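Researcher: Here's a chain I'd like modeled. Treat it as a single chain, no partners, no ligands.
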Amino acid sequence: MGSDKASFQHLGWWVLVLALLLGACQAHPIPDSSPLLQFGGQVRQRYLYTDDVQEREAHLEIRADGTVVGAAPQSPESLLELKALKPGVIQILGVKTSRFLCQGPDGTLYGSLYFDLVACSFRELLLEDGYNIYQSEARGLPLRLRPHNSPSWDLDPWGPTRFLPLPGQPPEPPEPPRVLAPEPPDVGSSDPLSMVWPLQGRSPSYTS
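Model: Modeled as a single isolated chain. Structure tokens:
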């Protein structure tokens, strides 16, 4: 009788230990295990394409003077570097101008030479159609290009802009220097391989 009671208590201890182990495993999942999450430090070069700006196709472009516009063709100023700060939050840098994309309190977009965590951090929201929506992490304002020929950044009537991240094209390798092909030997010459250099100041007796 006593041995049965001891066995039951021993089994109870094992059940308790197993329950604690299972609880610990459930309480500590692997962080950022989804491939859809942007891991810290990940860098991508992209063109941010949109056709939401008054039905006009455009690429977000950060210019050298700090202005942010939508340009129809891809250009060196529209090649952007997207770097993850933490899962779902990125910074956007113009590759050519080395300016960070930032947003003012009124929604105005501008390029800054210095990174500001409040103004230059954007949350990246993935849509089912492959497009993304970006919004200021600190202010919650949507990232949107200013409508064409519009003097203001009024965001309310338009809402957020959907951007399609297009892969950045790698720079073309420089052309190798051209090497001139050697001239064919003159078989009718006494020196077809040009092994004898022309003599300077020949004496009259040499040519006689």
